[in-house]
Amino acid sequence: MRTRFFIIRDPRVSRYGRYIFNTTLESLRDAGAKVESVSVTRRRDGVGLAREAMQSGTFDAIVGAGGERMVHNVAAGLIGGRTPLGVIPTGTGNVFAKELGYSFAPLT
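Now predict its structure.
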C-alpha cells in the first residue's frame, strides 16, 4: 500500500480545482498517508522536482496536480524510474484525466 506521496501542483487553478486538491489532500491524510506538497509557478519546474523526489527514494508515488501540462512535466521527470505517477485533475479542461475515465469527484 502506498502511503508516502510527493505532490507537485499548479497553484493557478479554479476555485473548483482548489476544492478538488484540498479535499483529496485531506482524504489522503485522513487515511494515514504522509504527504509533501510543493507549488510551482513554472510548470516545467515539475520535471526537476519529480526527478529529485523519485531519486530520493522517499516517496511511494509522485503526483501531478493540475492540467495536462503539469502532469506531462511530472511524468517526464519520472522517465527511467520505477516510481508511479499519480494524478489529481485540477486543470481547466482535464482532457488527459477524462480520457483515462477519472472521476472529478474528490475521494472521501
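The helical segments are 15-30, 45-56, 68-77, 95-100.
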